Amino acid sequence: MHIHILGICGTFMGGVAQLAKALGHTVTGCDTNVYPPMSTQLEQAGIGLTEGWGVEQLDLKPDLWVVGNVVSRGNPLMEAILNAGLPYTSGPQWIGEHVLRGRQVVAVAGTHGKTSTSSMLAWVLDKAGLQPGFLIGGVPGGFGVSARVGEGLPFVIEADEYDTAFFDKRSKFVHYRPVVALLNNLEFDHADIFPDLAAIETQFHHLVRTVPSKGRVVASLDSPALERVIKKGCWTPVSHFSAESQQADWSASILGASDFDVLHHGKTVGRVSWSASGLHNVNNALAVIAVAHYCGVLPADACKALCEFPGVKRRMELRGEIDGIRVYDDFAHHPTAIDTTLRGARAAMNEQGAPQGRLIALFEPRSNTMKMGTLRAALPDSFAAADAVFCLTEGITWDVADALAPLGERLHLVGSVAELVDQVAAQSTTGDWLVAMSNGAFGGVHQQLLQALTERKGAGH
């Protein structure tokens, strides 16, 4: 089959393309942002790319057009496809019908932590010799790719609640038909497509409805929204996890910032000592161990694998250290994710002992929800662990200064990445951790900071 993918350079659609190619299909695609790293991955896989939405692409005559949710009505190529009556489908539906069918599908859902948890789970299953397939919205360490078919039965898929396509407003994850649904957490997000939390809960219940009675739902015990979802009706056994409650089926005894014992029904079954930190990562790990247990992996073996987990790009990823100043890249863009990331970083700094540097947060409000200012009231508290906060105001229409005023003297507003780099590089001292948080490229701030710090060191400052 020849498929042509519209929006091929998105993380998800790029993964679809690589899986389709690995399965022997002819794959081509187009996008308006054909640039590395995804364009490089696709070209290395032998996938032809076209820049833009030109109608001349109809001459390719693929068997099927696979449409990403970046495409909307008015797109010239999509209009031509519709007018010609050509066959088209969405990326999630294509994956569900051509990749996931017959696999032991594990769908990892939640407002936060999907990429990290999916990556951990793929790693644990792989270490156990189960050779899982996966499709993840990031690049998990140890694999180097965001998607692979895998030779084993399990398939781990990051299950996004965002809508499927312009012609299918259901969440992507309803197409996956998982045997195991991992529900990590649930809060309000995606204000551009969901009116309120109840609307997202409805979509999560659609996912729960698809899990067979012989399968498993693994859910956080600490999420009232997930509790409401399950109470709407669940026909599948449920296992709960919690890093803070011993009442959960899977719980933890915290030993340090990066060390904890794992308990199953109150009995210690393993210990994790790893490079990650923060309660959010403990919860991610507990969820992974619970799912892996269902898939046949002993908890002790899962713990051992997590001790060796190499991390995920853009999840507290250390980009470099100059003169004792560390620059980290993190994807956090929701207030809860910002809070847990910074608290985890603070705990890691404290465990390293004196002399202590400062924890400096660099924040780009880039997601659709952040640009709308929907969650701005929660932002000041989310930066509680930071000693200083630099917020990029470029392109933001709501009053950032007013919303973040409770931060007081810790707040620094900057109008451009260049201004941010100049100010942060001038103020940073040995021992500081600079954590850049955005769901985009943040204007290359990480490399610019490292370059500025290198130049400052060379000048003898």
Automatic annotation (TrEMBL):
It holds the Pfam family Mur_ligase_M. It is an enzyme of class 6 (ligase). Keywords: ATP-binding, Cell cycle, Cell division, Cell shape, Cell wall biogenesis/degradation, Ligase, Magnesium, Nucleotide-binding, Peptidoglycan synthesis. Its cofactor is Mg(2+). GO terms for molecular function: ligase activity. The keyword Cell division applies. Residues 314-440 form the Mur ligase C-terminal domain. Residues 108-292 form the Mur ligase central domain. Residues 2-100 form the Mur ligase N-terminal catalytic domain. InterPro entries: Mpl, Mur-like_cat_sf, Mur_ligase_C, Mur_ligase_C_dom_sf, Mur_ligase_cen, Mur_ligase_N, MurCDEF_pg_biosynth. It catalyses: UDP-N-acetyl-alpha-D-muramate + L-alanyl-gamma-D-glutamyl-meso-2,6-diaminopimelate + ATP = UDP-N-acetyl-alpha-D-muramoyl-L-alanyl-gamma-D-glutamyl-meso-2,6-diaminopimelate + ADP + phosphate + H(+). ATP binds at G110, T111, H112, G113, K114, T115, S116. Its EC number is 6.3.2.45. Pathway: Cell wall biogenesis; peptidoglycan recycling. Reutilizes the intact tripeptide L-alanyl-gamma-D-glutamyl-meso-diaminopimelate by linking it to UDP-N-acetylmuramate. Belongs to the MurCDEF family. Mpl subfamily. This is UDP-N-acetylmuramate--L-alanyl-gamma-D-glutamyl-meso-2,6-diaminoheptandioate ligase. It comes from Limnobacter litoralis.
